[in-house]
Every structure is written in structure tokens, then in C-alpha cells.
Design brief:
This protein is an alpha+beta fold. It has helices at about 5-20, 50-75; strands spanning about 25, 30-35, 35-40, 45. Helix 1 packs antiparallel against helix 2.
């Protein structure tokens, strides 16, 4: 299996899991600074569904590219 095909399968799996289960990421930001005292917050922010759909599309392009490239070299 070519590396690009494997990467495509991993990206497809990430996109499918994110689309089905949803995903969150944590972004840290400062909310208060007083001298040497800092207050941080780390809210969970959801990943948008279009990001998961884009991962599915990009993964599919990688898989097709990897498979198509192999078929081309097999006939040469």
C-alpha cells in the first residue's frame, strides 16, 4: 500500500469519526492579567461539520490518487 493511500485512509477515518461523534478542541486564552498574576480559561470549542466533510473529501482524493498512480505504473 502506498503511503499516500494510507494517509488518505487515516484522514477519511478522522473525518468520519468527527462527523459522527463530533469533536472539540481546547483553546487557551488570557482573561485577566494583573502584574504577575494571570487568569486563563480553556473553553471547549466544537469542530464544525464542514471540517469533517472536507477531511472526507481530501482523504478520498488521496486514496484515489494513490490507487490511480499504482494502476498507471502497472501498465507501463
Amino acid at each position: 500500500m502506498r503511503p499516500i493511500t494510507l494517509v488518505g485512509l487515516i484522514v477519511i477515518a478522522f473525518g468520519a469519526v468527527t462527523l459522527i461523534l463530533g469533536g472539540n478542541f481546547t483553546a487557551s486564552r488570557d482573561v485577566l492579567q494583573a502584574g504577575y498574576v494571570f487568569a486563563h480559561t480553556q473553553p471547549n470549542q466544537p469542530l464544525t461539520p464542514w471540517l469533517a466533510a472536507a477531511a472526507l473529501i481530501v482523504g478520498t482524493v488521496f486514496v484515489v490518487s494513490g490507487l490511480g498512480n499504482r494502476a498507471y505504473h502497472a501498465h507501463r
